[in-house]
Structures are given as C-alpha cells and as structure tokens.
Amino acid sequence: MKLQSCNNCWFNGLQYGVLGLSVGYCSRHRKILNAPGETTCGWQLRKDLTLGRAVEVAELHQRHYAVEFVARIVDGMPRERDTSHNERDIQLLGRDPVAGVVLDHGELGATVESLAQLKAMPGSRAELAMLSLARGYVSHCVSRKGNWTSGLHLYWWSRQRLGDIPEIEVEDLHTMGAIQLSRQIDLTSWSLMMFRLTFIEDMIVHARQQGDPLGNISSLTEQAALALSTFNVHRLSVWLKTKAIPQLDARLPRGRYMAMARELQSQRERAEAR
Amino acid sequence: MTVRRRWKASKDPLYRGDARDCVRVPNPRADDSIVRHIMYFEGPGRETPYLSTSETYESADQFSDGAIWQTLVRVAGREGVGHIGRAELLTLMKGNGKGKAKWPSAFEVMQARRYVEQWAEHLLDFREVADSAQVVKKIFSKS
After folding, report:
1. In this complex, do B118 and A177 lie within 8 Å of one another by their Cβ atoms?
2. How many structural domains are present in chain A?
3. What is the pTM for the complete model shown?
4. Which label site among A37, A73, A198, B143 has the fewest CB atoms less than 10 Å from its CB?
5. Does A1 fall in a domain?
C-alpha cells in the first residue's frame, strides 16, 4: 500500500491496507476506484494518522495533487480506466452488502443513516467502512462550525466495541502481502483496533476544542504505543479494556451519554417542528 | 502464497519497486530520521538519505512505478552504502524509538514498525555516499 494512495484515505471506506475489497469507492468523488493502490487526489486524508497529523500531511499532499480528479500517484495525471461511475459497475459493486451501504453514504442526505446501517452489519469490513466514513463525517460537521456531538452515537458505538478483537476472515483480505496468513491477520486486526482508537481520539480532539470534559484525556494512541511494544492483539484488547475505557467512561459515562443523546433528539425534533 | 525460507543478507537480494527507467536518487544530506522516511510524511519529491527495499518481490511490486529493481547487501556495501536490516529496524522502533528511529510520536513509530514487518522492509543508507546518483546506477539492476 502506497501511504498516499486512495487505499489509505478516509473517503474510501472499502479498504485499509490488505483489508477490504479489490476495488475501492471514493465517497468524495463518488467513483469506483479500480486501482486504489496507485491513485490519489488532493483530498486525501490518511487513515493511518491521527487527526492533527493527517491534516498536516494533507496540506503538503495537496500541493502535488488536484482535488478535482483522481490521479495517478506517479505523475498526478488522471487515467480513464482508474475510476468508474458507470451504472452497471455501480450495480455490481452494490451487490456486496458493505459496498451497497457505502455507495448510499451521502446520497439524498443519508449520512448518519448509512453509518448506523454499517454499525449493525457483522464483520470487519463493515466496521472499517463505518470508522473510515465516520472520521470524514464528524470532521466535516465540525469544520462547518458544528458540534462535536454530531458524532456522539458514532463515538459510543466505537467505545462499546473498543476492546473487542475483530474477526477477520481470509475473504476479508484483498491481497496477502509477503507474510504468513496468521501474522497478516494479526497485524490487520491490530490496525483495525487502532483505527477505532484513532476515531475515538478524533472525537476527543473535537471535544477538547469545544471545551467538553472528554477532551481532557491525553492521546490514547500515544498511551497505547508506549504501553505495548508488540502487535499482540490480546494484549492490546486488555490494555483497551483496563486503561483506555476507564478514562473514557470517567469523562463520558453511560448516564451522560444518554442525557446528551436525549438532548440531541429534542433539538432535532424542535428543528423539524419549525 | 508460498512459505519462504529465512532471508539471508549474504546471498538473498533486496527488491525495490521504482520507475521503469531508473531508481530514485537519495540525498545523503537530507534529514535522516527513519520514522519520517518510512511514514512518508512529506509525500512526493521528499528528500531522504535512504532507499526502502524489501526481502520480497511481492512487497516491492506494491511500490513499483514500472519496474522492480534488485541489489545485494554486499554489492551496495562495496560502494559505501549502509544496510539497516528489517530485524534492526524492528528493534529500533519501540516506544519513542532509538537512534535514528527516535521520534516524538510513539504511535507513529509503531505504525512505521508495522509497515516494516508487513513489507519486510530494509533500508539502504546513503549518508556516507559521495555520488549517490552514480552509486544507485552501479548497485541496482532490473529484476
């Protein structure tokens, strides 16, 4: 995976490293990505980085690539065969249940709805898609002067499964790479668990910027990396359950979450009544 | 997938995916942080004193822009090119890193470490090389 490629971008919910389908889908350009490891654009935001670093790197990236089209990394030029929005191709891709929801994301105002659908679907690919699109959704809301609580439910869903070890099947991988299958699955599970934590950390950063107590937690990705020196997913799971979740729950316990959710619901109903 | 035997520096090649016509020329005087190099923060055109290579053809192929090149550690060594092997990289990249892998973010060190393992990465170190363009031409051949 070239790190600056569509494969590693928030707007492609269908892939991350070796996990995912053999094609991607850009929810920004609304196109199927036929060569996601070879293409990029000026909107790219890297999945493997925390929020602040991803934005910093994206600013440098945008100096080299146009935002208007998906281009080859090697020369910044578009190739017709690299993308598709052909109806037949979209239909074929939509036969995959996860891709079907990803294709609908952002269409006709369906953003949170599609993320809720992904949350309810089993499997690591559905979770990858939810987290990936959630990072884009919340950042977009906050950048438009929205409240960090636009991602409150997404935060809570991710917090609930934070310590779970994802079940990654062989068919979830689009390529094997050069290491043994069992090790590849361990590293991929580790990546997905850290991707959950990265999204949680995005939410902490947004909360901090808006003065919410959740923002008082220091970087969890840093804490995890300092506490764990290997890619052992069982140790990571234990660390998340015993060290990360208690910090989160001290600032945003279930009772506070429920109260905030009720308030958001009331606000929505008042807005709809107007 | 085939199960490979253990890679040996004395006889096994290192592969690099790069352009069809040539291998990118490193800058011996560029910032020599290993994490910065592996994480590719500055993107295209960034200056680096290292060239990333892999034990496996398959990994190199992911980074190819038209060709896979190869060299041997001893051939590179004869031209003053250092070798920082996968095992050494993995040892250096724990916590906030050690030596040239020291980095302010432990999370980024860990991500870089994961990539080293997934890509079976080795670095060729050009910091002591006077004419890196000539040396690159000399040590690499198309695979």
Report:
1. yes
2. 1
3. 0.96
4. B143
5. no
